[in-house]
Design goal:
5 strands; elongated; 167 residues; 2 domains; two-stranded antiparallel ribbon; 3-stranded antiparallel β-sheet; single chain; mainly alpha
Length: 167
């Protein structure tokens, strides 16, 4: 009975929590395994749906590389979007230069730089939008247009159409 067998598609369900704990399961997993056995009347070797298996299995250990003197260093396998972030933040010169696994600290720093740049550009475009709206508002005020005037004209048109329909 082992929890790692679940990765192969077979989940071994324990009759007692102590059985699961003796094979390296966490207390939470052991409780779930015993409940599965008692509630669902599962046999001790049962094929389980992958989503259930994902809940019960221990998560995979992060990818670690031991560096010279600092101890273990966590690495991140970047997705395509992560690779673009690494290039946009100028951590790497091109997509081809990015290794298969990037140090976690470098990836976090690149995402922070990207997040800051996105926020700055959102602020810049907001200020530009405000300036444009102020310009348009002042221009229409100089021409004598106002929302109150447009609203009055609209109501007059609606009232005239209603009178024409009654006649």
């Amino acid at each position: 009975m082992t929890i790692s067998a679940a990765r192969c598609g077979i989940l071994l369900v324990a009759k007692r929590a102590s059985d699961a704990l003796s094979y390296g399961a966490t207390a939470r997993t052991a409780g779930i395994l015993t409940r599965l056995y008692h509630v669902a009347n599962l046999s001790t070797t049962t094929v389980v749906h992958p989503s259930v298996r994902a809940l019960l299995c221990k998560p995979r250990a992060p990818f670690r590389v031991y560096s010279d003197s600092t101890g273990p260093e966590m690495l991140h396998r970047p997705s395509n979007f992560d690779r673009k972030i690494l290039v946009w933040s100028k951590t790497y010169p091109s997509l081809g230069d990015i290794p298969e696994a990037v140090p976690h600290a470098k990836m976090k720093k690149a995402k922070d730089v990207f997040r800051i740049r996105v926020n700055i550009w959102m602020g810049v475009w907001t200020v530009i939008g405000c300036i444009v709206m102020i310009y348009w508002g002042r221009k229409s005020a100089r021409e004598g247009n106002s929302l109150e005037k447009e609203n009055m004209l609209w109501h007059q048109q609606i009232n005239e159409q209603a009178k024409n329909k009654k006649v």
